[in-house]
Amino acid sequence: MVPGAKERPVQEFLNVLLFRPLAHLVVLLLYRTRVRPHHLVLFHTLLVLLAARLIHLGQDVPAAFLLQLKTVLDNADGQLARLRGEVTELGRYLDTELDFLGNLFLFLALGFRTGAWGWAFAAFLVFTLVQTWDFNLERLYRKARGLFLPPEPQDPETPLLALLRGVYRFLFLPQDRAVTALEEALARRLGLDPLRFWDEAALAGVVNLGLTTQLFFLGVFLALHQPGAYLTFVLLQAVYLGAWYLWRIARSIPSPR
Question: Which residue windows are transmembrane per the record (predicted)?
């Protein structure tokens, strides 16, 4: 594993294959500088906002390149923070919320570009749902096995931290609670085996639709000058997720003795 990479039960394939090794090269260059992880977060957020503007203007290839650079730096900020011991509560909220902002602007740009506002809105909802499921399924995986969740850093209270925490509780906490409640209710009512319902195979079904993979394929569709096809690609993930969910349930029903 690349030094400083986040430990997860199942890793996103494109991260392991490509983006984390590239990010590690960035970390090696920055490790002894004054650049802090939150500087990278702010910079790669600017990149994704610029990419959104380029999509709106029809500059697809430069936008595709910026999105891949954004992914490299998005990996680098976490690696740098962990290697330096600079993981912070502020950084966690900042990264999550600015990623959300960047994703929102990307889908707004796709809506402007294609004129398919309904599809763009629906695709954004599916996209967000996939990321939420990815985050919460790992927590349920750990809980089912009695594994400790990674400790959350606690920063000194500041107005900015309070603001970002409030935004997180408003935007993301309801999603987390809804996904967790649905998963646990289904497991309980159907008598599912938790070690199979929340296992590595289940995690792999959403981990490999994570943000890295999503932006990679958006870049591919942009390079082909087919931004509208990316909306279709994301919407088809809803069909896939439905089938994936039924598969998870079916394989987790205990066999009769």
Answer: 40-58, 104-130, 201-223, 229-247
| Number of compact structural domains in the chain | 1
86/219 Cα distance (integer angstroms) = 31
Angle between helices 200-207 and 117-144 (to 10 degrees): 150
63-118 pLDDT tens trace: 999 999 999 999 999 999 999 999 999 999 999 999 999 999 999 999 999 999 99
Q: Note whether residue 151 is domain-resident.
A: no
Which CATH number does the domain housing residue 80 bear?
1.20.120.1760
CB atoms within 10 A of CB 226: 15
Q: Provide the residue range defining the domain that includes 108.
A: 13-146+156-252
**Could you tell me if residue 8 is inside a domain?**
no
CA torsion, ordered 238, 243, 245, 247, to nearest 10 deg: -160
**Tokens, residue 10:** 């199942």
pTM over 0.85: yes
Return d(Cα 94, Cα 105) in angstroms, integer.
16
Using pLDDT thresholds of 50, 70 and 90, give the confidence band for residue 152: confident
Best CA proximity match to 102, nearest among 138, 73, 137, 61: 73
- In this structure, are residues 40 and 91 in contact, taking their beta carbons and an 8 Å threshold? no
Residue 170 lies in a domain: yes
